[in-house]
Every structure is written in structure tokens, then in C-alpha cells.
Amino acid sequence: MTVKSKHVRIKGIKDGLVFLLDDKCPFEDLLSELRYKLEHSHQNILTGPIVHVDVKLGSRPVTEEDKEAVLEILKGQGNLLIRSIDAVVESAQADQDVLFIMSGIIRSGQVVHHVGNLLYLGDVNPGGTVTCTGDIYVLGALRGVAHAGVDGNQEAIIAASLLTPTQLRIADCISRPPDEWGARESSMEFAYLSSGAMQIDKIHNIVKVRQGLNVFKGV
Amino acid sequence: MGEAIVVTSGKGGVGKTTTTANIGTALALQGKKVCLVDTDIGLRNLDVVMGLENRIIYDLVDVAEGRCRLNQALVKDKRFDELYMLPAAQTKDKTSVTPEQVKDIILELKKEYEYVLIDCPAGIEHGFRNAIAGADKAIVVTTPEHAAVRDADRIIGLLEQSSVESPKLVVNRIRPGLVKSGDMLDIEDILQVLNIDLIGIVPDDELVIKAANNGEPTVMNPDSSAAIAYRNIARRILGDAVPLMQLDRKMGAFKKFKKFFGMG
């Protein structure tokens, strides 16, 4: 068997070895390559005194069984003492917490969809639509339709510098602002769901619905 | 090589054909070689507004299908030697020519004429794609109504996806009285939504209707406030910096005229 791809990289650190395992390739390939490397190469490092080993699985989603399988192979070499085995648990959740920035004008008939949270620098015109699985922040005038939390996330919010939408939707709740909100002064505002009903508030009151924000309290 | 400008709007009835006829005539008035092209196949109007209906022999579809040479289909204007019109067919429909065919014809015309003005049909379908196929620039016509502005916005979005350069806006049929009383959208509101450069505003003027029915573009009549507006647009196309017309002032014909020359 010849192994061409480099799914397994072994690095030396001050007090041991780090096994960097690729997180994109199929898990089976990874195991066979690891097995091959331990059996056929690095003879001089892998025999001899006891070496501490850290295993890094990258951002691969792994089960306990998968970890066991990796450990099993490493245990085959008597001198390797496994100190840690870890995977970075950033996953999809972390990706979505990031604010994706986009700019331009969403004109009538145009639709922008984003998976995650969106910061839109520009206007959404009447007839234009912006949909998002997370929050929508518009740094500009929101005059069209905005739908936050399209997959059913009731925690999602919609904020805009000028919040004069044709229609707002959060998760399954639909609101027609002009009829239902009455006259307001148009300052930077945001919309959120409170027990199933759409509410509008000034942007600084966002702390009421978003715990865990960094709040400026003055110096 | 001349410049091809498409006049479009999305919504019907906002004054595309009137704008094409008047800007074209105003450019000819400035001594430019101009050709007007009607792409509204099946519903042609430009010939009627220009008063050239009875001179048509061949049309755009005949040229596209090779039944005649391009020069044979061109109709010379009765007022200007350097103003021509390529009429649309009235008996066919929009699908009888392809965007590529129109593009070739426009390219041919650009060799001969300094300005080629393309009158676009209403809508965003085949006819619209035909009209913008050969255009370098675009003029979007709207009126101060929500429906027209919405459609103009849609059109601008489509133009931005095409190869046509940044479109310019004409706000047509403004009634200063209604704007002042707050019953009509004002220019600022429209510009805030559409976010493109304004190239002219045209006041609502009964003389435009009268002129169109006589087959005589309004531009020829110096008593018409719309005529002044169209002449200003033509001058802006030629690169002159002409200030926007003041609409809130009631001006007599003489004062208007004086003002026009004062600015020029």
C-alpha cells in the first residue's frame, strides 16, 4: 500500500509529538494512513524512549468511538504515551455567530438570502427581500421585506438605521409595520419577538433581549 | 463611433416614447446626427409621436431578417436633415427579433450616427432584453408615483446586471402644485430610493399631449416648460452642466425663455 495524500502530519514539540490529523478527508482513510505511518516510517522517532503525544483532530465532528479507534492505533506503539486527544468544537454554530458583511442596494425584485447573521451596508428598497437564518442588521434604510430566523429561530432580530419596512418576519411571525405599529419617530430601531408578537424598540434596548452582550456602562 | 442610449422605465405610460422623441429632437436641434430606434414591436408609437407614420416602408424586423438594407428602413425626419428613425414592426411581436440581431443593427447605426436613442417597450421580458442588447448607456424614466418608482427600481436592478453603464434618471410629469401640497412624491424621495444620478426633471405640461397628437415633438415649442426641460436633458447628455429647473416658481413664458438663455 502506498500513501500519497498527507492526512496525517507529525510535528515535534519541546516535550513530545503532535499528531495533526486532517479534518476534511474520510475518517477511514485517516485511520489507515495513521496505521501505515506508524508501521512504516519514522522508525527512529517512534521507537525508543517514551514520548508524550497530543492528537489534534481539527474541526472534524468525532464521536467517542472515533477517538477510541485513533487511540487504539497509537497504543500499538508501546512508547507513545497519549497525553491529549481533542477536536476543535467550533462547528456550524460558531460559523453562524459571525456577522457576514454585504453591501449594495437590494432593489425591487431582488432577493438576498444568507445562512447566519447578516450585516447589510446599504438600502433594501420596496419590493426587495432579505432573508436570513439569523439576525439581520441593515446599516441603511430597510424599506422592503426582511425575514430573520427563517428556519424558525424566534430569538432572531431585525435592526435597521431606518426601519420603514413593507413587511417584517421573524421565524413564523409576520408583521405589517405601517398598519400595526402606528406613527413613530424613525431612529435606529430593531424588531424582536416577545411571546410570539413582533415588538419594536430603540436599538440600545437590545440588551433586554440579548443577554451576554458587552454593555457599555460609562467610565 | 456614436453612443447608444436606451430609454426605459419598466412601467408603461410614464413617457418613454415622448422622452425618446423629445431628447432625440433636442439633440438634433443641437446639430448632432441622431437616429431613433423603436423596439416596441407590435405596439409601435414613436413614428406617431414624431409624425412619420406615413413615411414608413420597411421596419426593424425587415432589417433583422434581411428583407432590406438598414438604410432602406431608416425614415428621415421632416424637420431635421440629421435626424432619422428606425421604426418597429406593427404586425409582428417582440420574439420576432433576437437581442443579438438588435445588437448588430445598433452597432451598425453607431458607425453612422453620433447618438442612437432606443425606445424600449414596457415590461422586463424579451422586448426589454432586445432594447438593452446594443445600448451603452441607459435613461430610466419614472413619474412621481410609487408604482412607477417601484418598477424603475426593478429596471435599474436589471440594468446593473447587464453591460449597460450606470443608468441616469428622468423624473417625468411633475406637478409642482401637488408636490408642494405633499400629495405627490418629491424628487428627493425618489432619489433616496433609486439612488442613481438625476439627468432631468420634466414638468407636467398639456402642450406635450397636444404636440404628440400633432406628430410634432414638444421640444420645438419654446413656450412649453417641458420643452425647456427636454432641451436641458439633451445638453446634459452632451456634457454641459445645466442646473435643474426650479419648479416651485410660477413663471411666465417670457421669463422662462429669458431664464433659459440666461443659463445658456
From TrEMBL, chain A:
The protein's name: Probable septum site-determining protein MinC
Stretches assigned to the Septum formation inhibitor MinC C-terminal domain: 102-199
GO BP annotations, alphabetical order: cell morphogenesis; division septum assembly; regulation of cell septum assembly
Annotated keywords: Cell cycle, Cell division, Septation
SUPFAM superfamilies: Cell-division inhibitor MinC, C-terminal domain (SSF63848)
Record-stated family: Belongs to the MinC family.
Role, per record: Cell division inhibitor that blocks the formation of polar Z ring septums. Rapidly oscillates between the poles of the cell to destabilize FtsZ filaments that have formed before they mature into polar Z rings. Prevents FtsZ polymerization.
Assembly with partners or alone: Interacts with MinD and FtsZ.
The species this protein was found in: Paenibacillus typhae
Superkingdom to which the source organism belongs: Bacteria
Residue ranges of domain Septum site-determining protein MinC N-terminal in the record: 8-85
UniProtKB/TrEMBL annotation, chain B:
Taxonomic placement: Bacteria, Bacillati, Bacillota, Bacilli, Bacillales
Domain named CobQ/CobB/MinD/ParA nucleotide binding: residues: 5-217
GO CC entries: cytoplasmic side of plasma membrane; cytosol
Residue positions binding ATP: 11-18
GO BP term, example: division septum assembly
Name listed for the protein in its UniProt record: Septum site-determining protein MinD
Organism of this sequence: Paenibacillus typhae
Record keywords: ATP-binding, Cell cycle, Cell division, Nucleotide-binding, Septation
Molecular function via GO: ATP binding; ATP hydrolysis activity
UniProt function note: ATPase required for the correct placement of the division site. Cell division inhibitors MinC and MinD act in concert to form an inhibitor capable of blocking formation of the polar Z ring septums. Rapidly oscillates between the poles of the cell to destabilize FtsZ filaments that have formed before they mature into polar Z rings.
UniProt keyword Cell cycle, yes or no: yes
Annotated family: Belongs to the ParA family. MinD subfamily.
Pfam families: CbiA
InterPro entries in alphabetical order: CobQ/CobB/MinD/ParA_Nub-bd_dom (IPR002586), MinD (IPR010223), MinD_FleN (IPR025501), P-loop_NTPase (IPR027417), ParA/MinD_ATPase (IPR050625)
